[in-house]
Design a protein that fits this description.
- The protein is of the alpha/beta class.
- It is built from nine helices and eight strands.
- It has a single domain, classed as 3-Layer(aba) Sandwich (Rossmann fold).
- It is about 35% helix and about 15% strand.
- Bound molecules: 2-acetamido-2-deoxy-beta-D-glucopyranose (4 copies).
- Keywords: Hydrolase, Signal.
């Protein structure tokens, strides 16, 4: 379904039962073909990191080091699409440490984009074709987690900084930007059992609403940008609400040690949605990556 408003074309891909991932771009821009892309730069937090070792530019084995029980969505996505994978995401990263009083040794998305990206790629001979490069940002879980206990800033200020980071990428030739909203962390074992769950729910909904507006607005502002808004909130909720469709038997708890389920009276890990209190299993990452691929390939 195409909706035309002002000078922006919006393509809404209706996945039954899902809200909507959306593309915002100028009518004048050329068409997009996922198959023509050859590189992905990704920024974010533990949901995205693959623990890139910058001095050697290599990734450790995900069976040894991962925030899930194996590969994450970036691995599934870049392998399936044969993309060169530069993953600068970092555990516990918010948009900007100072805004939410995150520990300063965490490499925020702000630093990933404005320090690491230029240092390791722009000011360096790393070859990538800008027309064939995708950029993804998935951030907000840590911002909300920090804000729920200590309202050090407003969501509006967070979005303002987020927007600057997208503009930074745009001014360094990024044309195809994937923005991913916050999944339903209010249903995670970390938050669901507590009184704060409804406050988390409201904060996430409001953050996602502001991100959507910002994505639309930035596409209107910049002529040559294409913004893919991925609705992780709905994609995760679809899995949580239809566990049988995906083969999950447990979408509320997690096994204390997924490598030794029998010792803890747990089912094998494939049956779980959550690998720990705030992170999803590799199976969730696989399905999420499939949705991202489906959306971008039909774009
Ligand atoms: C993963 O960990 C195992 C056990 O510690 C080790 O033998 C192996 O070399 C590690 N793999 C990589 C790629 O680091
Ligand atoms: C670019 O950065 C990488 C990572 O630090 C390094 O291995 C490579 O030698 C650099 N290339 C140039 C041309 O400086
Ligand atoms: C909120 O964060 C500020 C800045 O780090 C700190 O001074 C204050 O004590 C915090 N308040 C609570 C209730 O944690
Ligand atoms: C989910 O798994 C955890 C860990 O095995 C267990 O404690 C919990 O009771 C399970 N929940 C359901 C609804 O089966």
């Amino acid at each position: 379904m195409y909706i035309l408003f002002l000078n922006v074309v919006i393509l809404v891909l209706m996945i039954p039962g899902l809200m909507a991932s959306v593309i915002f771009n100028h009518r004048s821009s050329s068409s997009f073909h996922l198959k023509k892309m050859d590189t992905l730069f990704s920024f974010g937090d533990s949901y995205t990191t693959e623990y890139l070792d910058l001095p050697t530019m290599t990734y450790p084995d995900f069976n040894n080091v991962s925030s899930t029980n194996g590969a994450n969505w970036i691995h599934y996505f870049t392998e399936a699409e044969h993309l060169k994978n530069w993953d600068l995401a970092y555990n516990s990263a918010p948009i900007e440490n100072s805004l939410v009083h995150q520990n300063s040794n965490i490499i925020s998305v702000s630093r990933q984009i404005t320090e690491l990206f230029p240092r390791y790629f722009l000011q360096n001979d790393t070859k990538y074709c800008k027309d064939k490069t995708l950029y993804s940002i998935w951030v907000g879980i840590n911002d909300i987690g920090l804000l729920v206990n200590n309202q050090t800033t407003s969501l509006t200020s967070l979005m303002h900084r987020y927007r600057q980071l997208i503009s930074y990428l745009y001014h360094h030739d990024a044309k195809n930007i994937v923005l991913i909203n916050i999944p339903p962390i209010d249903k995670s074992p970390k938050w669901a059992p507590h009184d704060t769950a409804s406050r988390i729910h409201d904060l996430v909904k409001e953050y996602n609403r502001k991100l959507y507006k910002m994505a639309k607005s930035i596409a209107k502002q910049h002529r040559h940008i294409r913004v893919f808004f991925i609705d992780a909130w709905s994609i995760f909720n679809h899995m949580l609400n239809h566990p049988d469709m995906y083969g999950f038997k447990n979408v509320t708890g997690y096994c204390p040690d997924w490598r030794h389920p029998e010792e803890h009276g747990c089912l094998p890990i494939e049956n779980y949605f959550w690998v720990n209190d705030l992170h999803a299993t590799t199976k969730v990452h696989f399905h999420f990556a499939s949705e991202v691929r489906r959306f971008l390939s039909e774009a």
